[in-house]
Design goal:
single chain, mainly alpha, 17 helices, about 70% helix, globular, disordered C terminus
Length: about 475
């Protein structure tokens, strides 16, 4: 039988076995669909307290047959931020664990425990009031801190190079779908016979159900999947340049933290989170005090920007795939879509700072959040570009740093906005966010790379690097022809 490596034909977008026909729905698509559902549930679990806390502190707003808690604004802010205290801590360890032991069980344990904590929330509130709920949310944050590094690790193992942007975008659109689903359904659930506890019971139960399905159908790599065909497995492994017998390399910490492309990735991720979380946490207050329209009182308006963001994920993915097939390089594609996703919102934020019309403000807000989805085809896939072997670890590092920004940004807003009805102070807030978006993308365009880095296969000594250069030995797998 002809050796498999002799049955490869070189194409612009990588290597592919002769005779292999890409199916519309293969096992790699099933894995990405399950990851989409995972992030849908994860974000529903993340935002469920944000929407339930209104009913928990005002029983008359929904079903009055359930307990009401007298939590002031300071306590509510503490509860809503406590999730991120734990979330930051497990980012880097989560990436390292997923890389070393496999992302399947790291993801399974993280989401399952978080789901069980959600189911226990009403009970914890009853027996321990807000301090126990706060502790529970910290634990939920610890559990979810491993999710993004694990998902990134899985995408790096399952997505062929030329499908990476598309499959990654489909997967991460689950974050917006989960937000829309929870914002849109929470009012109905809280007003039903289930009351506000139903928000936690339902989101937690769905998470447990997903965990059961993932246990049977999920796999860390194509080699570990029991359902994948030989052809599809070889196609994926050849595209990403890996084999099932590859020894897992040690993490090259020094090389990672002396890599300029990686530092540009850290900064662009931090800039993204500053702008995104400023919008997510402060826009309702801006609407209420400047435009005299409380957007949180209307579930449709609250969910609209994220619904548009979810839809635009697929639009941008289709356009990127089309441009790639017509010859657009991966580097250009990443930077073009990241520019759309960050400089577009920067312009919209400046406009938002000057408008006093509620309708126009909602349109600008929807545009700002919606086109931000283009970053899924930009910096958010760049971790895998730089190092498929350490994509989870890289995501853990950048997401840890970025979520520090998620905590700092609202505090800075509180320092600047001393009078919530002062439009000039809000304009400063929007300008700062626009500056972060602009600077982050500028650095990414100047210093970001899409080539697999020399440290992808682990630490390399200077002598070994010299010897490999002399022998022409490639450490990064197949190289695209130019």
């Amino acid at each position: 039988m002809t050796n498999f490596l002799e049955c490869l034909t070189f194409r612009r977008n990588g290597y592919q076995p002769i005779g292999f026909q890409r199916s519309l729905f293969g096992i790699r698509h099933l894995q990405c669909f399950l990851l989409f559902l995972c992030l849908t549930v994860a974000y529903a679990l993340r935002v469920n307290l944000s929407v339930a806390i209104v009913a928990m502190t005002n029983a008359n707003s929904t079903n009055p047959d359930f307990p009401e808690y007298t939590w002031n604004e300071k306590t509510k802010s503490l509860l809503l931020s406590s999730f991120f205290w734990g979330y930051i801590i497990t980012q880097i360890p989560g990436g390292a664990i997923a890389q070393k032991y496999g992302a399947k069980y790291c993801l399974l344990i993280g989401l399952l425990l978080c789901s069980l904590m959600a189911i226990l929330t009403p009970y914890f509130a009853a027996i321990g009031d807000w301090p126990l709920v706060c502790a529970l949310r910290v634990v939920q944050g610890l559990c979810q801190g491993v999710l993004f590094p694990s998902v990134h690790t899985l995408i790096s193992k399952w997505a062929p190079v030329d499908e990476r942007g598309k499959l990654g975008t489909y997967t991460y659109s689950g974050t917006q779908f989960g937000t829309v689903l929870m914002l849109g359904s929470s009012g109905v659930i809280a007003s039903s016979s289930a009351g506000w506890p139903g928000i936690f019971y339902i989101s937690g139960a769905v998470g447990v159900l997903w965990s059961i399905v993932w246990y049977f159908y999920g796999a860390s790599t194509p080699a570990e999947s029991k359902s994948i065909s030989v052809e599809e497995r070889k196609f994926i492994e050849t595209s990403i340049g890996s084999t099932p017998n590859t020894v897992k390399p040690k993490t090259p910490w020094l090389a990672i933290f002396t890599s300029i492309p990686f530092y540009s990735l850290i900064f662009v991720h931090c800039a993204h989170n500053w702008g995104f979380w400023t919008l997510l946490t402060e826009i309702p207050t801006y609407m209420a005090n400047i435009l005299k329209k409380d957007i949180k009182s209307n579930a449709v308006l609250s969910a609209l920007p994220y619904f548009v963001m979810c839809l635009l994920c697929y639009v941008f993915s289709f356009i990127a795939d089309l441009l790639f097939k017509r010859g657009l390089s991966l580097s250009t594609s990443r930077k073009v879509f990241n520019t759309i996703g960050q400089w577009g919102p920067a312009v919209a934020l400046i406009g938002l700072g000057y408008t006093t019309d509620a309708t126009l403000a909602i349109v600008l807000l929807t545009i700002t959040v919606g086109i931000n989805s283009a970053t899924y085809l930009g910096f958010q896939m760049n971790h895998i570009d730089l190092s498929p072997n350490f994509a989870g670890t890289l995501m853990g590092i950048t997401n840890c740093a970025a979520n520090v920004m998620s905590i700092i940004a609202p505090l800075v807003v509180g320092f600047i906005v001393t009078d919530e009805e002062n439009a000039f102070q809000w304009r400063i807030v929007f300008f700062i966010s626009a500056a972060f978006f602009f600077t982050g993308n500028l650095l990414f365009c100047l210093f970001g790379k899409t080539e697999v880095q020399p440290w992808n296969n682990g630490p390399v000594s200077r002598r070994q690097s010299t010897r490999e250069a002399e022998n022409g030995t490639a450490r990064n797998g197949p190289v695209e022809s130019t």
